[in-house]
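Example record

One chain of 426 residues, shown exactly as stored in the release files.
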Amino acid sequence: MTSARKPARRPFGQAGREVDDVIAELGRKREDDVRWADGRTFGLVYDGGPTVHDVAEKAAALYLHENALNTHAFPSLGSIQSEVVGWTADLLNGPETASGFLTSGGTESILCAVKAARERGRIERGITSPEMVVSASTHAAFHKGAHLFGLTLHKAPVNDDWTADVNAMAEMVNENTVLVVGSAPQYPQGVIDDIPAIASLAAAAGANCHVDACMGGFVLPFAERLGRDVAPWDFRVEGVTSISADIHKLGYAPKGVSVILHRTKELRKFQTFLFDDWLGGFYASPNLQGTRSGLPMAAAWAVMQHLGIEGYVALTKQTLANADQVRAGINEIDGLVTLGDGAFHLVAISADPNDSDPLDIFALADALGRYGWYLDRQGPPDSLHSTISNSNTGVIEDYLDTLGRCVKEVRGTSTDDRSTTYATLD
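Predicted structure tokens for this chain:
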């Protein structure tokens, strides 16, 4: 059997090409991309509507070339960062002392939180073998942070309701623990961990407690304003030292911009890298990047100013209505169940374990894909993940009709493809 060969590397052209020719080819490259603008993608891109597109694109054009590495040279970006961080701190009930920075996305915010916890443990407690405690539902970026920054990671199981097993986490906390993590909500099933209990564990150990609200930071504050029952999770919980929240998700800003917040500026200092022992003078970097584009920062500022709290409440109201409709529709289809008691915008679909002939949920994903619907595969257990947003407004009935049709099509069939790729691989 001959293995497939990669296509020959495309040569870099000697001569340049006309602008229209270049842009036309880029347009053709997009033909096989997911159809997020049609609302047929549950996640990845979040659509706030035409006016949100307009203000973001105009802001992006203004800041296409600006460099946020040096806010002395670009004081407007320093002002933008300060204001966006302050607005987010207000949304998350941060005290007057709350401080933070903008990052490129949730992963970078999480990595910064891990790094800050390690440094605080080293400086304040003399810990040279730092450890962190997470649950099985905690985002993979924490594992990445442990790998990059040399922490030992302990992973606790989840309860039957998919929330972190705090009792199991408590058994893992010790004198070397520098970080304990909770999610609001966690990504796989969309449930909120017991943040007060997790924060209490961290506080008792003298460790940081980070709340990963990358998925919920721009939903839960507005859901609460809409009267939804939201379990305690933000800076109102004593012992929470840092929170990550992604503006480029349900904040409806373009990729990539997230916020990492610390309860105090004193805690924030452990995130920043300072260095002057070279020939280039004083260097300071608040996150993992050096040079970084001002474009996402400016676009986030513009979107937040354009929407205001009232705009976000309206988008969240529509998002939650969409999610409620999806959950109700799934529960009407024989052979399917939703995992966890999610009440917000994340929905996980699995085969009904009580079915006499359970569906192959990944075969269902393949069938949905043939109709143009894209859902992430995840597991264990085998399930399909949806992040519902305003992007899906107007297509929910079509989706549910197609879902029911696909269930009938794949019943009794299976697929050999058991992949759960959420990655960039070549």
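Notes: The chain has a mean pLDDT of 93.
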